[in-house]
Write a structure and sequence with these properties.
Length: about 210
């Protein structure tokens, strides 16, 4: 229960930071050489919270926000139309790219039929929760834990602590063991979703719009 309230608290603070007006700051020479277009920033008076936004000439952006010791980030694409800047992160709530992979060389905890999930860099993702057949049936591959007994596996979905997940992935008939790979190397547990977040670009300021 304490963890739930703590996560809720951090989420509310992050949303507060998301609603702040951002001020344009100077782009460094190194950033400019890498294709940076404009840079914006906000921080609270006490220095406990911040937002950073870097717009690139190729239409991509990087966004970071932090409250106390919690830091989150995302990347995506930006557009500007009639003075309105729109940001959309590459990853959204239910579109984490995940595929079935070969079982060879994968880590199966204590004979579990579901391997520990890896990303493209072969990093083990210990904090994922896998839904099996239905949303109500959960599996923690790292600990070989299931909240219900499962029989034949027809489909799976990979979820993260922050509520993001993949789509349902169908399992071929007769497949006994399952290995899944996330086709993204971001720290998804600390990913910050921007779904067409809009700002009015006024001089050197970005003013958030509803």
């Amino acid at each position: 229960m304490r963890i739930f309230f703590f996560i809720t608290f951090l989420t509310s603070l992050a949303l507060h930071a998301k609603c702040q007006t951002l001020r344009q700051i100077k782009v460094s020479k190194e950033e400019r050489d890498q294709g940076a277009f404009r840079k914006f920033h906000w921080s609270d008076a006490g220095g406990y919270g911040y937002v950073g936004l870097l717009l690139m000439n190729d239409g991509t952006f990087s966004y970071s926000t932090g409250i106390c010791f919690s830091h989150r980030h995302c990347t995506g694409n930006w557009t500007l139309s009639r003075g309105i800047l729109t940001l959309k992160s590459t990853l959204q709530k239910n579109n984490i790219p995940v595929i079935l992979s070969a079982e060879e060389g994968r880590h199966f905890a204590n004979g579990s039929v579901i391997a520990l999930v890896e990303n493209q860099e072969k990093k083990l993702l210990q904090d994922v929760i896998i839904s099996v057949n239905e949303d109500s049936i959960k599996c923690l591959p790292a600990m070989e834990m299931y909240n219900e007994k499962i029989g034949k596996i027809h489909r799976v979905k990979v979820g993260f602590e922050n509520g993001m997940s993949s789509e349902w992935i169908s399992i071929p008939n007769g497949q006994q063991c399952i290995a899944l790979t996330v086709l993204n190397n971001d720290d998804i547990s600390n990913y910050f979703i921007l779904d067409n977040q809009r700002f009015r670009w006024k001089g050197k300021y970005l003013i958030p719009q509803q």
